[in-house]
Amino acid sequence: MDSVQSPDWPAAPPGALAANSAAARYAGPTPTPPSIGRATAPPPPAHAAPAPPPYRPPAATPATTGTHRATPPIPVKILVAGGFGVGKTTTVGSISEIAPLTTEAEMTTAGIGVDDPGQRSGKTTTTVAMDFGCVTIDRSLKLYLFGTPGQTRFGFMWDDLARGALGALVVVDSARLDDCYPAIDFFERSGLPFVVGVNAFDGRLAHDLGAIRWALAIGEHVPLVQFDARDRLSVRDALLVVLDRALDRATREKRA
Q1: Cα separation, 225 vs 172, whole angstroms
Q2: SS3 state at 102
Q3: How far apart are CA 223 and CA 9, in angstroms?
Q4: Measuring CA to CA, how many Å separate 150 from each of 5, 23, 102, 197, 249?
Q5: Residue 136, strand partner residues
Q6: What is the Cα 172 distance to its own chain's centre?
Q7: I need a surface site. Which of 124, 152, 169, 192 has the fewest CB within 10 A?
C-alpha cells in the first residue's frame, strides 16, 4: 500500500530516521538496547541526578506499653418490681439517663375487675412487658434497670427478668399493701437481695414504716425505706440501698 507524505514534513535522507519520528521531533537520544544476560547495570550518564533510595515500607509502630486505657463501667442489673400501679414505670423514668423504654398499653373496659389501680390513681395505661432504663453511678459502675409488669397474668416473665440481677427494689403503695405480697414472696423464694421502697403518693404515707414492716412480715435484715418515685434524688437514694445490700451479700459469700 502506497504511503502519503505531508508536504510539511521534510524528506528523510536515505538511511536516516524519519523526520516525524519521536527522536527527530523531540531531539531525544536513541536508546541503546540492553545486552542479553547483562550482569551489571550500565554506568549512569555524567550529569545524571543521583538515583533515589530504594523503597522501604514503613516499619510497624510497636504497641504502646503502660498506657492507661479507660475501663468501661461494670454493668449491674437491678429489678424494679411490685404490684399493679405502685409507681414502677415512674421510678425507672425518673432516674434513667436515657429515654426509658416502656411497653405501656391503654387500659380498656376488658380490664375492669381484673386490674385495679386504686381509687386515688388516675392511671390510664399499664405495662404489658417491661420497662428499661439505665443510670451511671460513677466511672466504674452503671445500673441497668428492668421494671417488671405488675399484673398477675404477666408473672411468668419475672423469672426471665430476674436472671442475672444482683438485687431488686420492691415498690409498695402504703394504701394497698395486699398488692405487694406476691412480689415479696417471689424474692424471698429466689434468694435475691431486695429492698422494700414505700412510694409516698402525694408526699405522705397511709401508715408509718413500723406498721408497714409488721404488715408485710419482713425481717429486720430487709431494708425498708420511704421514697418518692417522681423525685430523681429520692429514687437514687433507694437504689443505693439496693446496691449496698447486694454488696453486703457478695462480701459475705466471698468470706464463706
Answers
A1: 10
A2: coil
A3: 108
A4: 101, 94, 13, 15, 27
A5: 142
A6: 30
A7: 124
From 156, 148, 88, select the one nearest 117 (Cα to Cα).
Answer: 88
Kindly report whether the global pTM for this prediction surpasses the value 0.90.
no
Tell me which amino acid residue 141 is. L
166 vs 14 pLDDT, higher one: 166
Of the candidates 168, 167, 178, the residue with the CA atom closest to the CA atom of residue 85: 178
Question: Cell match 425518673: residue?
Answer: 94
Q: Which residue in 153, 155, 209, 210 sits closest to 185, CA to CA? A: 155
Rounded CA separation 100/126 (Å) = 15
- For the structural domain made of 74-255, what CATH number should be given? 3.40.50.300
Domain range summary for the chain, segments of one domain joined by + = 74-255
Measured distance CA(79)–CA(223) in Å, rounded: 16
- Dihedral sign for Cα 231, 234, 240, 246, please: negative
CA distance 170 to 110: 27
